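Summary of Year 1 activities. Much of the first year was spent building the evaluation harness for sequence design. The harness presents a backbone, in tokenized form, and records the residue chosen at every position. We chose the following record to illustrate the format because it has been used consistently in internal testing since the harness was completed.
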């Protein structure tokens, strides 16, 4: 189903969000609606980005000014055994979207990931730092970035993000809020560093980037600062008034995974700052302001389950 938000006839920008029913896509819907920006939400049942005929016909009918591609294979571990499928969506799909965007003269925002980096370095990774993914998922996303920049680089932005959370879908923050609300003991990894990023704040940041005509190429979209998964969980328990002694730190070996996770997912924001755009605010501030609304969603779920 296609959802449309209509504003005045003077509105000239029409946005199309691909992958519109994931947590970032739904967050874009909220942000664009609040801003009074006309937009269309397309999910996997509306369009198949791996089919050139499907994506071409759908986007030609809308003729959007701006396309945001949130559609992706995001099952990191499953990608290790399904590389062809991951590359089909994350590379071929991304290329198809870029080619159609170019033909329509639409500006394209392609959402990518910290997984394009090895994750073994120290400090924040710059936008132009050498890549080197250590997983199939990361390799497929990097291939998608390259396809977008090759086919439509003159009018595209690649925005890498990490550790996304929101009230929608499944994510780490929602899981830990549920644990906190049920006074559960948890063991959480304390040797992976990243930037918890609120999806709605990323959507607002992307809108700001798009409004800057000089914004081209690769950018990083994450809340500033850094934390481990353990730090994040302790913050969640604290903000909800739950005893943080229920949270125990462990190292990554306690939770072996098929795909290697980055030890350091911290992304720098130098290009954003160079454009005169502020980087996204500290992750703890964003969490503090959003946790009440997310927790209310979890409380309703718990009530319905009882």
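For this record, the design step produced the sequence shown next.
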């Amino acid at each position: 189903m296609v959802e449309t938000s209509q504003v005045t006839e003077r509105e000239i920008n029409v946005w199309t969000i691909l992958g519109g029913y994931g947590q970032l896509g739904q967050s874009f819907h909220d942000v664009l609606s609040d801003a009074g920006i006309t937009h269309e939400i397309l999910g996997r049942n509306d369009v198949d980005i791996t089919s050139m005929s499907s994506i071409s016909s759908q986007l030609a009918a809308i003729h959007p000014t701006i396309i945001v591609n949130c559609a992706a294979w995001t099952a990191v571990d499953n990608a290790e055994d399904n590389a062809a499928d991951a590359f089909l969506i994350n590379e071929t799909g991304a290329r198809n979207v870029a080619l159609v965007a170019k033909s329509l003269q639409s500006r394209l925002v392609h959402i990518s990931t910290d997984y394009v980096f090895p994750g073994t370095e120290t400090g924040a990774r710059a936008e132009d730092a050498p890549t080197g993914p250590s997983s199939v998922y990361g390799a497929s996303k990097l291939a998608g970035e390259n396809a977008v920049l090759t086919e439509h680089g003159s009018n595209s932005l690649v925005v890498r993000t990490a550790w996304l959370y929101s009230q929608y879908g499944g994510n780490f923050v929602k899981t830990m809020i549920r644990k906190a609300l049920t006074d559960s003991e948890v063991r959480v990894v304390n040797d992976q560093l990243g930037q918890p990023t609120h999806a709605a704040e990323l959507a607002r940041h992307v809108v700001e980037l798009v409004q800057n005509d000089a914004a081209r190429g690769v950018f990083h979209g994450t809340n500033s600062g850094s934390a481990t998964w353990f730090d994040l969980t302790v913050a969640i328990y604290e903000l909800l008034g739950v005893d943080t002694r229920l949270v125990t730190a462990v190292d990554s070996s306690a939770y072996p995974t098929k795909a290697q996770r980055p030890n350091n997912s911290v992304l720098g924001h130098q290009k954003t700052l160079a454009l005169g755009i502020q980087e996204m605010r500290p992750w703890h501030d964003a969490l503090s302001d959003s946790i009440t609304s997310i927790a209310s969603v979890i409380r309703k779920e718990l009530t319905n389950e009882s």
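Residues 75 and 185 are 26 Å apart (CA to CA). Quantitative recovery figures across the full test set are reported in Table 2.
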